[in-house]
Amino acid sequence: MARQALSSEEIIEILDVCFDVEFSFIKSEKPAELIVTQTRTNQDFILDLTKRISATNEELALQFAMNSVKALDAMDKHMVEAWAMTSTDNYDRKGLFPAMSVIRELDSFVHTAHVNACGSVLDEEISVLLPFAQGLSGRKLKISESPDNYAYTDTETIFLPAITALLKESKENFLVYKASVAFLWAQIQFGTFRVSFDDLLNAEDSEIQLKKFYALETIRLEACIKRELPGLHRDMQALKQQAYELDNTTVTKTENWLSIQEKLSVSSATINDTLQCLPLINEDDCPAPCCYQGNFQFEQVTEVMQKRIEKEKAYFRIALSELAKESMNGNTDETDNEETEEIPNNDTPPKFEVTSKDDDQQSTGVIELQLEGGLVAVPDHVKELMTSIFVDFGEIPPEHLFAAGPGEYDLKKYEEEILNPEDVWKGTYHEEGAELYNEWNFKRQHYHKNWCVLRELEIEPIYDNFVTDTLEKHKGLLKSLRHTFEILRGEDKLLKRQVHGDDIDIDALVEAYADVESGMEMTDRLFTKMHKEERNVAVILMVDMSGSTKGWINEAERESLILLAEVLEILGDRFAIYGFSGVTRKRCELYKIKAIDEEYNDEIKARISNMQPQDYTRMGVFIRHITRMFNEIEASTKLLITLSDGKPDDYDTYRGEYGVEDTRQALYEAHRDGIHSYCITIDEQARDYLPHMYGAANYSVIDDVAQLPLKVSDIYRRLTT
Amino acid sequence: MKSKALKPEEYFIKDEPFYQAIGDEIEIFEAAYKQALPVLLKGPTGCGKTRFMEHMAWRLKRPLITVSCHDDLTASDLVGRFLISGGETVWVDGPLARSVRNGAICYLDEVVEARKDTTVVIHPLADDRRVLPMEKVGEIIEATPEFCLAISYNPGYQSVMKDLKQSTRQRFVALEFDYPDAGLEAQIIIKETGIDAETASLLVKFAHMTRDLKGSGLDEGASTRLLVHAAKLIHEGISPVVACKTAISQAITDDADMMVAMHELSSSLF
Predict the structure, then answer these.
(1) B235-269 tens-digit pLDDT
(2) Which of A315, A607, A647, B174 lies 20 to 30 Å from A467, alpha-carbon distance?
(3) 50-89 in chain A: CB under 8 A from chain B
């Protein structure tokens, strides 16, 4: 039986709580009037969402409540929820006004939703488009979202619009992306940018000239694509036809056009041929540009190319001088000399020669380097450089082939300025180079997108007596720990009574004979076999470095790390150690002490020595970051152990239930990726919240801080056996 | 028709296995064989190492005993073990002992996969002693001059665990293999499968695309062997795009996006 719909008074009562009317002075009557007309299911749906949005902002919740009935008429519930969450996301990123406009502009959201349904979204397709672009030969290209709504390239990155929804089906729209990538790749690969466009751009009728140029160059590039990627060319032609039909464009080709088409379609045609053909056609002859062609951004191209050409020349010539040095030393002497060292014969820098095995001028084919008549083996990174230079010039220019002489080794000016993460708060680049993570808002039942700004920092090693003192202090404990863990180590185990094996199991054989004599069937399990049980464990230790650990908690933590690291070395388990702390979501700092593939050496020990208490404990973001790290590690057991002294707690709203729920959500995400999480804490109240976060059996509370070093190793042993 | 059963040491390759030399590997192998030096073949998977060994066995007219090493392969799998037969234990030679006794070519494929104790038996065979100690029967077998030891390994795995120890690798003459250049690779495909030259060169182009993706999502590009597989499917009438998908893309990756990307690449070509 359908439940009875809520009355206007009942709705007002609920809304009053949502809007916090005593303080916000919002009147609940108006939205209630609208909501009361709905069925009970719809009422519940609207009120629930209103409550969730009010956790973000009451004003926004009011707007939602006012528009919700209209929205339910226009969209299904799933889309209404998406609409509400888009507005809260906007609130997070841009503030109240843009968030309100999402709610008010319901129609535009409905339209976008339609586009999203049949369009192809770059964010979703990039995982396919990127390897596609990189699989096409030549320079390794990047793909990025275009700030304008058209596709273009700067010769290193292909910029594509965020959504393509020109055609009816999402599959066809994906094809538009694919065709755009191939077309822009062809511009780079087949030398569209090998000439200067100044004349064209400065001409009086530059707009007309550009239009003509664009149409002609398209012919040439499409012919190149036809030769290189015949399958795609077919698809592109079909696409073109479809797009023209959709626009009702008719294409008529004049005889003049056809003859030019023939001229530009031969494999030897270059950009110069395109330019020569410019005066031969009229503007009216040019067909309308097609959906995948995109546009030109000459300024960006020039800027990026200039930088790259200079940089690659320098890098290439230095690589050549190293190759020359190697071949002169006959590959036997030390080749890892300092960069500043001069090549032996520095009067005239050696000149290399290029031979191409491939006659085809258009493709890089196989380029080989020769020095004094002998072939030189080219390492992969130099090959990549050569390919990139070849793509820019259509050859390796002779001036590139002189190895760098003395004094030409300064690459500093070409190196991109690397921002020092520690300078973050001195300058203005808060989010540059940092990683962004979502955060769970339990009230909203949704994530804040890209909410936390995480940065990995290094800890300076301090070479003091801490490590030796610790080892000395816990000498006895360490001895027994070593003993216990050595037993655990994956040793060869002799398996008896096996079907196949290295040796005969005499016991089994004797028994088998006895069985046969007494008329029973003889077993075939007569062999012994050595079996090696391999531990395949990767563990990341996440250590609380918040201000509250100051004093002996911090010391106990560091001591535990030293002892645990010792036993992990015995076990041969891979391990990493990270400290975490931060202030607000804008500054989450993960301190690297030991990465998973680093060797445990004196420097690491000295870093442990220098782990100092910092600020607050915002946990979710670090767990998400470490989960991402774990996903790149192959191990059958992945273990995340957190050493902490209290609840998640940060300067802003990250306290109480909010912090606990976000941490719980992050741990849940980790669990989904096959990571076991365990928490060791010294907070006596932890029994109240840890079971909720980690699960009933996944935590230990240590009452006595002094016991921490012993317990940590002990817990680890229990966890992994 | 009944198939013939032969002991491995009696099995001689009669027909010439097709092998297209890339450099002077055949001459070097023959020289090493004459001088009784063991040989190490390095190279990515599917570039023709095993085929090369078959070809050399045919050329040198010796039986070829191949052992595909796996992580459970122990020294006794190579040397031999006692088995029980009618109330008594009987010694049965392993493939390595058979090769040593009969002067065959023993080829240990992907040797780094085997367990570490196998090196104990390989080492004395791979230096100038050329003997195989058989601990369990208390014997030492001297290798005949015809015996030859060859091992292969793929340096591309780049795992510390899967690396060949210096003490092992420094006993061998090393031959490096790589995928042949485009023209040659197309020829190999044509010869192996009989497809037309144009399809063969498109297949090679596709292989180069996948090899360019090594490191950006793929661990390994398409090998010549996979190209031959695809070409064989195409020869049987399967469409090239489907053949590339089943014989190449799905064979080299499980990553869904990567598979789609490779599918897009192959459909762009054919």
Answers:
(1) 999 999 999 999 999 998 888 888 999 999 999 99
(2) A647
(3) none
What is the complex's ipTM, to 2 decimals?
Answer: 0.78
| Residue A183 pLDDT level (bands cut at 50, 70, 90) | very high
Quick one: DSSP state of residue B2? P
What residues does CATH 3.40.50.410 cover in chain A? 537-720
Question: Does the pLDDT of residue B156 top 70, yes or no?
Answer: no
Is the CB of residue A134 less than 8 Å away from at least one CB of chain B?
yes
Distance (Å, whole) CA A444 – CA A430:
26
Q: Which of B82, B208, B269 sits opposite A231 (nearest CB)?
A: B269
Alpha helices by DSSP H, A592-678: 602-609, 620-630, 656-672
Local structure of A703: helix, strand or coil: coil
pLDDT of residue B37: 93
Quick one: which of A75, A47, A71, A74 has its CA closest to A61? Answer: A47
Looking at residue B233, its pLDDT comes to: 95
CB contact under 8 A, A231 and B267: yes
Is the CB of B257 less than 8 angstroms away from the CB of A127?
Answer: yes
Do the Cβ atoms of B209 and A532 come within 8 Å?
no
Structure tokens at B53: 């060994």
Class level of CATH domain B8-176:
alpha beta
> What is the CATH number assigned to the segment(s) A537-720?
3.40.50.410
The whole-model pTM stands at 0.65
Q: Which of residues 348-387 of A touch B (CB under 8 A)?
A: 357, 366
CB contact under 8 A, B267 and A532: no
Q: What is the 3-state secondary structure (H, E, C) of A31-98?
A: HHHHHCCCCHHHHHHHHHHHHHHHCCCHHHHHHHHHHHHHHHHHCCHHHHHHHHHHHHHHHHHHCHHH
Residue A248: alpha-carbon gap to chain centroid: 42
Flag whether residue A526 sits within 8 Å of chain B, measured between CB atoms.
yes
Q: A234 to chain B nearest CA, in Å?
A: 9
Q: Least CB-CB distance to B268: which of A127, A232, A503?
A: A232
Å between B78 CA and nearest CA of chain A: 11
A88 pLDDT above the threshold of 80: yes
From the list B37, B40, B28, B41, the residue with the least C-alpha distance to B128 is B37
CB nearest to A366's CB, from B84, B181, B268: B181
CB contact under 8 A, A128 and B212: no
Contact A139, A388 (CB under 8 A): yes
Contacts of B215 (CB under 8 A, 6+ apart): none
| A299/A305 Cα distance (integer angstroms) | 10
If you measure CA to CA, which chain A residue comes closest to B87? A513
The torsion defined by the Cα of A557, A559, A563 and A564, in degrees rounded to 10, comes to 10
B113 and B72 Cβ atoms separated by less than 8 Å: no
Give the model confidence (pLDDT) of A470-511 as tens digits.
888 888 888 877 777 776 665 667 788 888 777 888 888 888
Query: What are the tens digits of pLDDT across the range A365-403?
Result: 567 777 777 777 777 778 888 888 888 888 888 888 887
